[in-house]
Specification:
By secondary structure, this protein is an all-alpha fold. The protein has a single domain, classed as Ferritin, core subunit, four-helix bundle (Ferritin). Helices cover about 65% and strands about 5% of the residues. Strands 1-2 form a two-stranded antiparallel ribbon. α4 packs parallel to α6 (about 165-175) and α6 runs antiparallel to α7. The model has no long low-confidence stretch (mean pLDDT about 90).
C-alpha cells in the first residue's frame, strides 16, 4: 500500500496528504471519434448540473439525539451487550458520532473522487471520455461541498479519513494505469458508496440528510455508468494476464473494504471497548448481511465489464455476494434519478410561490 505523505499543524492535526505517483498526460486529436453512449451520458451530465446552495434547503435542522433520524438498527453495535449497557445520553452521543464518522468517510471519498476524475481527464486516451470526466469533476466538487456543509454546519463534528479508505485511495491514485483509476474509483469505491448512500436516503427521516444523499446518488449513478461504458470497451483488448491482475486487485480491495471498514475511530474516541466492538461488528449476523448488501452494485458491474474469471467468482461466492451478479444496475440508476426528482417535486410543492 502506498501510504503517502502527511502534513500537519503544530498540534498534530493533519492538514494535507500528498500521494506520489507517475502518470502520462494524453491528448486525443481525433475529435470526431466519439461513442454514442458516452456522448449521451455527457449530454445528461451537462443537463443535470445543480447548485448545492440552492437545491438543498440548508435551513433545516438535525435532531440532537439522532441527527439523521435513522433507526437504531443502523447503529453497528445495536443489540450487543455494549449497546445494552449504554444509557440514553450515551446512545445519543454514539448515534451522532457514528453518523458523523460515516458522512466524514463520504466527504473524504468524494474528494478522492474529485482528484480521480481530474486524473482521468488527464490520462484517458479518448476525447469523449475526457468530456464526460470533466462534468464529473464538477459533480465531485459539489459533493465535497455538500457533505462538508452538512458536517461542519449541522453536525459540528468531522472525523479524519479511515485508514482503510486512505490505503485504497493511495493505491488508486499512485497507479500509473488509467484504467485502474476507473476500476478503483468508478467501480469499487463509488459502487460501495452508492449502496451506503442508499441506506441513509431510504431510512433517514430527517429531510436534509435524505436530500443530500439522494442528490449525490443521482450524480453517482452516472459516474458508475461511465466506468462501465469505458471499461467494457477496454478490457476485451487486454491479455488474460492483464485481466487477471485487475481481478486480483478487485478481490483484495473488496475483502479489504468488507473486513476493515469497522468504525474503529469511533469506538476509540468514545472510550468504548474497542476489541469487543470490532468483534461484534465483524461477527453479528445483522452486520454480515448489511456489509454484503454494500456490494450489490459492484458485483453486477464487475460482471458487465468482463472481469468475471474463476478467481473473482470464487471470492464473491465466499463473501456471499455472488447472487448480486444479475442485478439490473441500469434499473437501479433510473430509480436513483427518480427518487431525486421526486424530492424536488415535494420541495417545490411545500414552498409557497413567491409570485
Amino acid at each position: 500500500m502506498n501510504a503517502g505523505t502527511a502534513m500537519a499543524t503544530q498540534d498534530g492535526a493533519e492538514t494535507h496528504w500528498k500521494v506520489r505517483g507517475e502518470l502520462d498526460t494524453v491528448f486525443d486529436w481525433d475529435y470526431g471519434d466519439t461513442r454514442r453512449e458516452l456522448t449521451s451520458l455527457y449530454e445528461k451530465g451537462k443537463a443535470l448540473q445543480w447548485n448545492a446552495s440552492v437545491r438543498i434547503d440548508w435551513s433545516q435542522e438535525l435532531d440532537p439525539e439522532n441527527p439523521q433520524q435513522m433507526p437504531d438498527e443502523a447503529v453497528t453495535i445495536f443489540g450487543s451487550p455494549i449497546w445494552q449497557r449504554l444509557g440514553r445520553r450515551e446512545r445519543a452521543e454514539l448515534r451522532r458520532h457514528l453518523q458523523a464518522w460515516q458522512l466524514s468517510q463520504f466527504l473524504h471519498g468524494e474528494q478522492g473522487a474529485l482528484v480521480c476524475a481530474s486524473k482521468i481527464v488527464q490520462q484517458v486516451p479518448d476525447v469523449d471520455a475526457k468530456y464526460y470526466a470533466a462534468t464529473q469533476v464538477m459533480d465531485e466538487a459539489r459533493h465535497v461541498e455538500a457533505y462538508s456543509r452538512l458536517l461542519h454546519e449541522k453536525f459540528d463534528l468531522v472525523y479524519e479519513i479511515a485508514p482503510t479508505l486512505r490505503a485504497l485511495l493511495a493505491d488508486v491514485l499512485s497507479d500509473s494505469r488509467w484504467d485502474m483509476t476507473y476500476l478503483g474509483m468508478q467501480v469499487l469505491i463509488e459502487g460501495l458508496a452508492l449502496a451506503a448512500f442508499a441506506s441513509i436516503r431510504d431510512q433517514a427521516k430527517n429531510p436534509l440528510a435524505a436530500a443530500v444523499n439522494a442528490y449525490v446518488m443521482q450524480d453517482e449513478a452516472r459516474h458508475v455508468a461511465f466506468g462501465r461504458l469505458v471499461l467494457r470497451d477496454y478490457y476485451p483488448q487486454l491479455t488474460q494476464k492483464e485481466r487477471d491482475e485487475r481481478e486480483e486487485f478487485a478481490v483484495a480491495a473488496c475483502y479489504f473494504m468488507r473486513d476493515r471498514f469497522l468504525a474503529q475511530q469511533v469506538w476509540e474516541r468514545l472510550g468504548l471497548p474497542v476489541d469487543e466492538c470490532l468483534r461484534y461488528v465483524s461477527q453479528s449476523q445483522h452486520m454480515t448481511e448489511f456489509r454484503s448488501r454494500l456490494f450489490s452494485r459492484i458485483v453486477p458491474t464487475m460482471k458487465d465489464i468482463g472481469l468475471w474469471g474463476p478467481k473473482i467468482r470464487a471470492a464473491y461466492a465466499d463473501m456471499g455476494i455472488l447472487g448480486y451478479a444479475d442485478v439490473d444496475v441500469d434499473a437501479l440508476s433510473l430509480a436513483d434519478e427518480r427518487v431525486a426528482l421526486e424530492m424536488d417535486l415535494r420541495r417545490d410543492e411545500a414552498t409557497p410561490d413567491a409570485g
